[in-house]
Amino acid sequence: VAVVEAGPGRVEVDCPAVALGCGGCDWRHFARDRHLAAKADIVTEAVSRTARMSPEVVAVRSVEPTARRTTARLAADETGRLGFRRASANDPVVTGRCPACHERIEELIAAVTLDGPGEGVLRVGARTGETGLWGTDGRLSEASAAAAAEQSIATGKRGRIREVKEGRRMEVTMGSLLQP
């Protein structure tokens, strides 16, 4: 409910959206080194307890400190503006930006609107720059659909972007999961 005394490895959350109630990032209060260790602890415990496997099978690999989300699933308010869901709720918190997201995703959060409430997915190929958007249960607004066509942005669940990971080129649809 509240932090009485901060534990070791806890840092101030550096995102103004959290103060507005955004629930998009559950781990921003961890210092970087403690963040990775905490995730490794969770996976190690699950592998040992649930899978009954030796914890040595868990490989912890760090991402670059500058790495940012390349896919974001957002909720749209009554006017169609996109935001992340409120912590422990479904209603959107419209922030216009997200420091955890790739800069192109940040641009799209502020620019894309749906035709009323619903859900949208924004995706960018971090190495290719290709972008896509999909209104999962809400159509894109006319302005956003026109802008997407003008800018060659992939749209719809089957819209595809290309990405490169460890020298391999991939085609990813908007409806698929990719965590580079």
Record the SSE blueprint:
Layout: H1 16-19, H2 32-49, E1 71-76, E2 82-85, E3 92-93, H3 103-111, E4 118-124, E5 131-135, H4 142-150, E6 154-155, E7 160-165, E8 168-173
Parallel strand pairs: 5-6
Antiparallel strand pairs: 1-2, 1-4, 2-3, 4-5, 7-8
Description of the molecule:
The protein is an alpha+beta fold. It contains four helices and eight strands; from the N terminus they run ααβββαββαβββ. The chain has helices at 16-19, 32-49, 103-111, 142-150; strands spanning 71-76, 82-85, 92-93, 118-124, 131-135, 154-155, 160-165, 168-173. The strands form two sheets. A six-stranded mixed sheet has the order 3-2-1-4-5-6, with helices on one face. The longest helix is centred in the N-terminal third of the chain and has 18 residues, at 32-49. The two termini are 33 Å apart. The model has no long low-confidence stretch (mean pLDDT 87).
